[in-house]
Amino acid sequence: MGYENIRVEKRGRVALVTLNRPKALNALNSELIAELNAALALFDSDDKIGCVVLTGSEKAFAAGADIKEMSSLSFVEAYKTDFITSWDQVSRFRKPIVAAVAGYALGGGCELAMMCDFILAAENAKFGQPEITLGVMPGAGGTQRLTRFVGKSKAMEMCLTGRMMDAAEAERSGLVSRVVPLDELLEEAMRVAEKIADFSLPIAMMTKESVNRAYETTLAEGVRFERRVFHSMFATDDQTEGMNAFVEKRAPQFKNS
Ligand code: CAA
What we know:
The protein is an alpha/beta fold. It has helices spanning 30-45, 67-70, 75-80, 89-92, 108-115, 142-150, 152-161, 167-172, 185-198, 201-213, 219-232, 237-247, and strands spanning 6-11, 14-19, 51-55, 60-62, 97-101, 104-106, 118-122, 126-128, 165-166, 178-180.
């Protein structure tokens, strides 16, 4: 499939998706989101892909929803088309997906990064939910996910003032897993993604599902869920292989089965 707003590249078992609307700082319009969803659907059904990296440019991961596209939207249109809901597909992607963020990740850009499994940030990254300056509020999960990442006080301040957070503050407050120099961001993200993709894919998927449960349920239910999924892993060939390889002092050869 030809894409106009993203670039897609497969490097071994890792798929690299680069948001590519440089004239609009990768603002997220409906075509871009449709292309991203289509690419993710292909990766989902491609057994050779074990992890995805989502990135933007050095200046902007994404500067938010496309303000020019949505400025004339009416309430009824927004409601009838269920505006923004199609973006959620990223958060429902079942394989691991890493956001590599340089430059601006604002509004929907910050929300898109938070839909990924974790965020690696370049030193120049800037995160923010500036929607209030436009007379709206975050609409792609920002009030919920940012609050879970950084806690109520900081999330409330960010959403109510629209101020940006730099990479160091984002790391301190748990929004990003690590900060790396700008010129190492992509290389590091690919290295991490390759490492994940070398493990057993079904085990990585179940691990992701279990960590995500922590956001959706109580501690007791979450631990019960984890225990059941953990037990089920003993039905996989990859558990046998992983543990036998350890005992036999050799590298495991996972078969994704
Ligand atoms: N939508 C549409 N176009 C955008 C855009 C956006 N979110 N962000 C930037 N652009 C466009 C600009 O209009 C400009 O286009 P023109 O050259 O045609 O005028 C181009 O990208 C470059 O932008 P700037 O000249 O503004 O670049 P800058 O370096 O001076 O500023 C910036 C960078 C601070 C990121 C600034 O562009 C900005 O504030 N952008 C808007 C950020 C924002 O408010 N995002 C939230 C959107 S609402 C949302 O996301 C809702 C939701 O929850 C889903």
